[in-house]
């Protein structure tokens, strides 16, 4: 297995120039400086080759520069680049029609197009307030919904995201996300842990703090992403839907990371058998061209002309890239994600058996988290070790990203093949072995 000396000379020079002129607030994971990519492979400016298990934080759904997406962008570019949301164009309408077809609810859907995940969350917050006339919200600890002030008020995965930015938007109460690996409440006999969390919301939050009629919406990541790739137990969403129905609270799901086929269905919420009211979309929708959306039940999109908008909403290049992306996901990658996702889960579970530092492997489709612990018994998070695994993998030609306290996410392009996964897992396991030696974690621990 080759080991790169990173960053190489060209990468080093670019990183130095970057540090002079680009905001230091960007949290770069490590010194990868991209030159070009193809499918699940990327090359840095020094010619080093990597497999990409990060996909630009779950964005390049169809792989890097898929020829059909590139062609759609080229074709649209030659026609026009922009017309603004003050006018109409066909690709925008077609995208709305496609999102209506794949919306995770039976009612007709109306979409509002944005430029990013955070802007989708902002739109959902505003629509929920407008439609209900209520002002309060419930969000979840560990959540990541973005960094503009509205979405940031829901984001609760690291104090650093809030530090220095108060006051945030008023009216968000956070509750624990149902993490079956790290429960914080005692379950009643026969109760699913997801139901336990919903009982807490009902008894403690609605019962003691927030008048239910003042609550506009509940915002939840269908699968928690940045917080650690946490999959809620089966009882959670049915109980949550029931709670929202009984109190007229809108159920807003953030599918920015988990949506667009990442779990082998269009939306992660479809794995849980309930229908949300508003879906926040971003990341993978246009394979890397900035685009987001909210998809909402038609009956709740009651805001009037002029009440919300933007300059770039429905940008023609982004819509063209999204339409090509939707075709590819529909025709090939939903199926591929199911197949290779199951294959990846099996392979990672085998790795987990061989390594004392791997506490849990969890995932659906190609949204997989590998959580590292100091000991399988205590489940104490092994943050430094997981970071070391990411860096050792980088030096050996694999891009991955951490999340939560000590989890590594496996979120490659949905086009990845089994043999590419095998190659990546070989590097990943070697990196775990090395990190375990460095941190002196052995099977006796
Ligand atoms: N929501 C979720 C679940 C996310 O994972 C992210 C970004 O990581 C966002 C919202 C914010 O998206 P963006 O960075 O495009 O604003």
Provide a quick synopsis of the model.
With 445 residues, the chain is an alpha/beta fold. It is built from eleven helices and 15 strands. It has two domains: 9-65 and 333-438, Alpha-Beta Complex (Aspartate Aminotransferase, domain 1); 83-314, Type I PLP-dependent aspartate aminotransferase-like (Major domain) (Aspartate Aminotransferase, domain 2), CATH 3.40.640.10.
Task: Please specify the SSE layout and strand pairing.
Layout: H1 9-21, E1 34-38, E2 41-44, E3 49-52, H2 55-58, H3 67-79, H4 90-102, E4 109-114, H5 117-132, E5 136-140, H6 149-154, E6 172-175, H7 193-208, E7 215-221, H8 236-247, E8 250-254, E9 278-281, E10 292-297, H9 316-354, E11 358-364, E12 367-372, H10 383-395, E13 398-399, E14 401-403, E15 407-410, H11 418-438
Helix pairs in contact: 3-9, 4-9, 7-8, 9-11, 10-11
The chain binds pyridoxal-5'-phosphate.
Give a structural overview.
The structure is a single chain. The chain is of the alpha/beta class and 445 residues long. The protein folds into two domains: 9-65 and 333-438, Aspartate Aminotransferase, domain 1, CATH 3.90.1150; 83-314, Aspartate Aminotransferase, domain 2, CATH 3.40.640. The protein has eleven helices and 15 strands. It has helices spanning 9-21, 55-58, 67-79, 90-102, 117-132, 149-154, 193-208, 236-247, 316-354, 383-395, 418-438, and strands at residues 34-38, 41-44, 49-52, 109-114, 136-140, 172-175, 215-221, 250-254, 278-281, 292-297, 358-364, 367-372, 398-399, 401-403, 407-410. The strands form three sheets. It has a seven-stranded mixed beta sheet, with helices on both faces. It has a four-stranded mixed beta sheet with strand order 1-2-3-13. Helix 7 runs parallel beside helix 8 and helix 10 crosses helix 11 (418-438). The structure holds pyridoxal-5'-phosphate. Residues 57, 116-118, 121, 144-146, 221, 225-226, 254, 256-257, 282 line the site of pyridoxal-5'-phosphate.
């Amino acid at each position: 297995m080759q080991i790169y000396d990173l960053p190489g000379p060209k990468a080093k020079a670019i990183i130095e120039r970057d540090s002079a002129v680009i905001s230091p607030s960007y949290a770069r994971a490590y010194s990868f400086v991209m030159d070009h990519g193809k499918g699940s492979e990327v090359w840095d400016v020094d010619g080093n080759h990597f497999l990409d298990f990060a996909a630009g934080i779950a964005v390049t759904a169809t792989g890097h520069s898929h020829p059909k997406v590139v062609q759609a962008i080229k074709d649209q570019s030659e026609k026009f680049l922009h017309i603004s949301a003050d006018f109409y164009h066909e690709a925008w309408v077609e995208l709305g029609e496609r999102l209506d077809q794949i919306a995770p609810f039976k009612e007709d859907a109306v979409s509002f197009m944005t430029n990013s995940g955070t802007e989708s969350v902002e739109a959902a917050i505003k629509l929920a307030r407008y439609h209900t006339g209520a002002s309060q919200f419930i969000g979840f600890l560990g959540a990541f919904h973005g960094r503009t002030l509205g979405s940031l008020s829901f984001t609760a995965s690291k104090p650093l995201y809030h530090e220095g930015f108060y006051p945030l938007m008023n009216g968000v109460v956070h509750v624990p996300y149902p993490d079956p690996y790290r429960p914080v409440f005692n379950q009643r006999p026969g109760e699913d842990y997801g139901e336990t969390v919903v009982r807490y919301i009902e008894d403690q939050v609605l019962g003691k703090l927030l008048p239910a009629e003042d609550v506009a919406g509940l915002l939840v990541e269908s699968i928690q992403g940045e917080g650690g790739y946490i999959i809620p137990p089966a009882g959670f969403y049915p109980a949550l839907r029931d709670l929202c129905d009984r109190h007229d609270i809108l159920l807003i799901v953030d599918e920015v990371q988990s949506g667009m086929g990442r779990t082998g269905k269009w939306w992660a919420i479809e794995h849980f058998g309930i229908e949300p009211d508003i879906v926040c979309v971003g990341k993978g929708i246009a394979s890397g061209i900035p685009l987001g959306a909210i998809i909402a039940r038609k009956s709740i999109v009651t805001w009037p002309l002029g009440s919300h908008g933007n300059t770039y909403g429905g940008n023609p290049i982004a819509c063209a890239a999204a339409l090509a992306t939707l075709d590819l996901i529909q025709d090939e990658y939903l199926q591929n994600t199911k197949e290779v996702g199951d294959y990846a889960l099996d392979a990672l579970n085998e790795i987990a058996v061989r390594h004392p530092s791997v506490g849990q492997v969890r995932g659906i489709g190609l949204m997989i988290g590998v959580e590292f612990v100091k000991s399988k018994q205590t489940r104490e998070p092994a943050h430094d070790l997981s970071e070391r695994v990411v860096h050792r993998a980088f030096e050996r030609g694999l891009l991955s990203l951490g999340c939560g306290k000590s989890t590594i996410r496996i979120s490659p392009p949905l086009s990845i093949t089994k043999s590419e996964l095998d190659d990546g897992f070989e590097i990943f396991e070697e990196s775990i072995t090395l990190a375990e030696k460095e941190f002196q974690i052995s099977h006796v621990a």
